[in-house]
């Protein structure tokens, strides 16, 4: 099948369009845009700027991709938005490119961004993530792989969320959320590990129990953070989960969410 462009769509001749691309009614695809093979662009979608959408991604109606960042420091410099393969971007989502700070916003592969999701400038989203309706990422947010973000959750600038974490709906996330965590609240606190998500992802019962013990020491034992880190290092020498969690905590710029105590 060839490229299918609805007669009401406006597609720049300087846009790069792959094979088997579908562009729906009243969509606008401007100069500089690259659409990979089998990309589907729904009705009234607007794609502009230096935006690359890789193969198999589906963009639903009224989504806006690549418009200038909502950042007063942005002064028109050339920046980019990269969206990977096989993503689903639902209705009214808005994704901005980067600023001069990093030059780009990057979204990986196989993600589901539900209706009204906002991804601001200079964000990084990994692979196989789900961001539910009205999830909002401020600038410079970093999301790992297989993260689930509940609906109406807002994430503060420069916050990092580690792999396999899950954030409850309506959470206010102002500090980093480490890998494998279950966090919720206003502000968000760590409640437990993401046991169900880890099990679904194929983690063994033994590995899940190790992660639970690490979290118990770091976030629920009453130890200071530095004391907890030393205990984890001594208790789980060479364990990849311990190393990953400890590295995340030590490298945190905004500080890590505290464990819920009541």
Please outline the helices and strands:
Elements: E1 4-5, E2 10-11, E3 16-17, E4 22-23, E5 28-29, E6 34-35, E7 40-41, E8 46-47, E9 50-53, E10 58-59, E11 64-65, E12 80-83, E13 88-89, E14 94-95, E15 104-107, E16 112-113, E17 118-119, E18 124-125, E19 130-131, E20 136-137, E21 142-143, E22 148-149, E23 154-155, E24 160-161, E25 166-167, E26 172-173, E27 181-185, E28 188-193, H1 195-200, H2 205-219, H3 225-235, H4 240-251
Parallel strand pairs: 1-4, 2-5, 3-6, 4-7, 5-8, 6-9, 7-10, 8-11, 9-12, 10-13, 11-14, 12-15, 13-16, 14-17, 15-18, 16-19, 17-20, 18-21, 19-22, 20-23, 21-24, 22-25, 23-26, 25-27
Antiparallel strand pairs: 27-28
Q: Helical proportion?
A: 10-25%
Number of helices: 4
Strand content: 25-35%
Which radius of gyration do the C-alpha atoms yield?
Answer: 20 Å
The CATH topology assignment of the largest domain is UDP N-Acetylglucosamine Acyltransferase, domain 1
Largest sheet: 11 strands, mixed
Side by side, the strands of the main sheet go 1-4-7-10-13-16-19-22-25-27-28
Structural class: alpha/beta
Task: Provide mean pLDDT, rounded.
Answer: 97
Distance between the termini: 59 Å
CATH architecture of the largest domain: 3 Solenoid
How many domains? The number is 2
> How many extended strands?
28
**Can you identify the CATH superfamily of the largest domain?**
Hexapeptide repeat proteins
Indicate the CATH class of the largest domain.
Mainly Beta
């Amino acid at each position: 099948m060839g490229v299918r462009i609805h007669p009401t769509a406006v597609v720049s001749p300087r846009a790069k369009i792959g094979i088997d691309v579908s562009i729906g009614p009243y969509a606008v695809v401007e100069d500089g845009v690259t659409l990979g093979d089998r990309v589907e662009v729904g009705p009234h979608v607007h794609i502009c700027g230096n935006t690359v959408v890789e193969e198999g991604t589906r963009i639903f109606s009224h989504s806006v991709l690549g418009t200038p960042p909502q950042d007063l420091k942005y002064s028109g410099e050339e920046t980019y938005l990269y969206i990977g393969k096989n993503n689903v971007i639902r209705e009214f989502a808005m994704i901005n490119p980067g600023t001069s700070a990093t030059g780009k916003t990057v979204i990986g592969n196989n993600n589901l961004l539900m209706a009204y999701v906002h991804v601001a400038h200079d964000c990084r989203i990994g692979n196989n993530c789900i961001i539910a309706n009205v999830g909002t990422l401020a600038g410079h947010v970093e999301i790992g792989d297989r993260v689930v973000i509940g609906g109406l959750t807002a994430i503060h600038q420069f916050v990092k969320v580690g792999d396999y974490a899950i954030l409850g709906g309506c959470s206010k996330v102002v500090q980093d959320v480490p890998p494998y965590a279950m966090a919720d609240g206003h502000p968000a606190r760590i409640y437990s590990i993401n046991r169900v998500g880890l099990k679904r992802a194929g983690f063994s019962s033994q590995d899940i129990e190790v992660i639970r013990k690490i979290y118990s020491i770091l976030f629920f034992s009453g130890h200071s953070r530095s004391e907890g880190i030393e205990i984890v290092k001594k208790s789980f020498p060479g364990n990849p989960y311990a190393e990953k969690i400890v590295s995340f905590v030590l490298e945190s710029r905004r500080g890590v969410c505290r464990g819920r105590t009541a």
